[in-house]
Amino acid sequence: MDDTTTPAVKRTVHTSDFKRRAVTRLKQEGNATALALELGVPRNQLYKWAKRFEEAGTDKAFKGPGRPAGVEEDELAKLRRENERLKVENTILKKAEAYFARRKP
Predict the structure, then answer these.
(1) Whether the model pTM is above 0.70
(2) In the prediction, which pLDDT does 13 show?
């Protein structure tokens, strides 16, 4: 068994200005691979930033930290999570009903 552990990868936070300039350069140069290597970001991240930039516009594209609420959240995923939660609640209620039904005189 190997006892070596890989160090935790530290997440890099980029400023809104950095992202805007990266998207602008991506549109101008068109070579995402070279730009990603130069900037030190994953190539797919450049595409995600460009997509967000196009969808939200220049002013709202990169406001604040983290993923924008609801932008990438799929309604189907929300409904599936809610469905699972309701199934668990239903199971609990059925068990409680059976318990209390046995205790009646």
Answers:
(1) no
(2) 79
